[in-house]
């Protein structure tokens, strides 16, 4: 660790594993870089395949992340190869650590997981061997403005591949990347076994003193603009208006975020506050999902959220908007229902149909579970990422 004191005092760079002294036996040295401090979908995805690929001895993986991040805590707890740095500037704090780690560990591939990490990696390239190349992972389908700076950033020749979590996300690069061979899609996956066989435990019913017959229409989401939970509330209002016994249905949102107070106020304004439960952050989502009768997702923008796969694995029928790549997995009348964005009327229609038609609900549950088991289990993403890394032409 003492050899690293030459880094500027404004950047606290800490190597949590002594890598330099070890004889590297790997054919490919990979540095995963993120500037995100919270635990979001992108970090969960990256950490998942990082762990899955540990068994392959020809891949030598490392992580660089903020020292106070959730990811750093997980790596430290499991004594995994990682480096941390102190954030004083979102981009510039990362440049020196990237250069130092790449040189000390003969990095072949910098795999970046957010925009700031990409900018920092590109700024570090002039100080690194031309053998170091970049892979970018993209999870959300937010539009990229067709500006010179973006075309330069995302079309940089040292970015050899851009991985998207859905075809919808991949499509956002169409206007700015001419060489489509640089684009690829690797769908996310979950540990399906963690959601299988969990019968309804009525944990939500018990916590809120609800009759076991009460139907639960729920969502698991951050309380942010992109999740458009106002439409969730609008949909709930329509469903309740068409329900004879309103006490037989409860609407549940599991998650936290900056819009919580606004959403609670909106539910009151719509006159449905007593029928809507804000449960906050929960660690036992897999158990709570089994209490859902319908999973209702109303997002405006998405990549392809893991919660969709989790609901399918839990055999909870999904009704969702067509945000991002959701329609690539949720097929009408087969694995669920999708509607246009903000179409509360159509969302309500499909939810009511599933609550009334048990035969249809069972048909969708079976198809959805088969899909996620065969195509979105951990073994799928492990095989896909290993094949991806081995396909890269390293100089």
UniProtKB/TrEMBL annotation:
Membrane-traversing stretches: none
Q: Which InterPro entries match?
A: Glyco_trans_1
Taxonomic classification: Bacteria, Pseudomonadati, Bacteroidota, Flavobacteriia, Flavobacteriales
Q: Which domain of life is it from?
A: Bacteria
Single Gene Ontology MF annotation? glycosyltransferase activity
What is the native source organism of this protein? Flavobacterium faecale
Where's the Glycosyl transferase family domain?
204-370
Kindly provide the name given to this protein in its UniProt entry.
Glycosyl transferase family 1 domain-containing protein
